[in-house]
Design brief:
This protein has 334 residues and is of the alpha+beta class. It has helices at residues 16-21, 64-84, 121-132, 163-182, 186-204, 266-273, 285-303, 308-324, and strands spanning 25-36, 41-49, 54-63, 92-97, 104-110, 149-150, 153-154, 217-219, 228-232, 237-240, 246-248. Helices cover 37% and strands 19% of the residues. A hairpin with a 6-residue loop joins β4 (92-97) and β5 (104-110). Its EC number is 2.7.1.172.
Length: 334
């Protein structure tokens, strides 16, 4: 179906596969470019429905095997979030492959015209806590039923009964992908045995020992300011989008807030913890947060290898944590 356009815009045709999944569309009024990243481009689709209403949809297009899997993961993750907190993410519509472009794939959801800034923390953290409080993971396991992507970085979401085991496995996967893309880093490699044998057991095992346990929470998985938007400028109410979800320890989400570049200040931590308290042992919270922050910095180092600061921040934090916990996990810690 050909679309109308402004004279200065490129003439765009909406693929039949996309037209077929849009609900009750009478006319496609406009298709416009809406942005682009290194691994995907996005479009805004404006339509008239059969009842006369006009509405806009957001469409992301990506290519190749990983493009297909990434958009599948985004649809599945957004659907999981929407099932729990429909007021906290765009309504997902469909994903699939384009008919008229070879090896090209799409994801469609409701479109929002976001206001500038970061959502107001009171309502935002209430919604996030509500998402995290729905402990409905299949069979109570950590993981996800498909691969989800952080940018173009696939995550290993293999199901696990233990959070420590899941986190260990997922972090090793990120490190393997980083090395495949950028090559070895001797300074980082030298610290990894202590990270996996001492730090991770010391900080994560106490969550699930000594009579303590944690229930899997659905996390957004990449919750930085660029994946949250204000939908009501007068109130600052916001939603999240572009998730790389899995069922996790709820505090994993907050690891991405540790880094000032992501603009979730201490106030967001405070508001979040009015709904969900810090896990026991509470005294380990800050260093657990630092450990989770290491993984997010390693994500960034993998996605943007030319920005050496991301890798250096991860190395510096691992060095601090390995010095602090060189004794590893002991019976006293459990």
């Amino acid at each position: 179906m050909e679309v109308s356009r402004k004279p200065t815009q490129e003439r765009l045709v909406l693929d039949p596969s996309v037209v077929a999944v849009l609900p009750n569309v009478a006319d496609v009024l406009e298709v416009a470019h809406d942005g682009e990243s290194a691994w995907a481009k996005s479009l805004r689709i404006h339509v008239r429905h059969t009842d006369g209403r006009e509405e806009s949809y957001f469409m992301k297009i990506s290519h190749g095997y990983h493009g297909h899997e990434a958009l599948k993961g985004e649809f599945q993750a957004t659907s999981a979030i929407y099932a729990i907190t429909p007021d906290f993410c765009p309504k997902p519509i469909a994903w699939g492959s384009l008919q008229c472009e070879n090896d090209a794939h799409f994801y469609v959801c409701k479109y929002y015209d976001f206001a500038e800034g970061v959502p107001e923390p009171t309502s935002f953290c209430e919604k996030l806590a509500r998402l995290h409080s729905s402990h409905t993971s299949p069979e109570g396991k950590f993981g996800f039923h498909c691969t989800t992507y952080n940018g173009d970085l696939p995550q290993d979401n293999t199901w696990s009964d233990s959070w420590e085991s899941y986190f260990d496995n997922g972090l090793r996967h990120v490190l393997r992908v980083r090395e495949e893309r950028t090559g070895p880093c001797p300074e980082l490699d030298a610290m990894l045995p202590a990270l996996f044998e001492k730090v991770i057991p010391r900080l994560l095992r106490p969550l699930e020992s000594g009579g303590r346990s944690i229930l899997p929470s659905l996390v957004h998985g990449d919750l930085w300011c660029g994946n949250a938007g204000i939908i009501d400028e007068s109130t600052g109410e916001g939603i999240v989008y572009d998730p790389s979800s899995f069922w996790a320890h709820n505090e994993y989400e907050l690891g991405n807030w540790r880094h000032k570049r992501n603009k979730f200040t201490h106030r967001y931590f405070q508001m979040y913890h009015t709904h969900i308290p810090k896990s026991e042992p509470e005294g380990d919270f800050d260093d657990r947060n630092a450990l989770y922050g290491v993984r997010f910095n390693l994500h960034a180092a993998t996605l943007f290898p030319s920005q050496e600061s991301f890798l250096q921040m991860a190395i510096d934090e691992i060095h601090r944590l390995t010095d602090e916990y060189n004794a590893g996990f002991t019976r006293h810690d459990g």
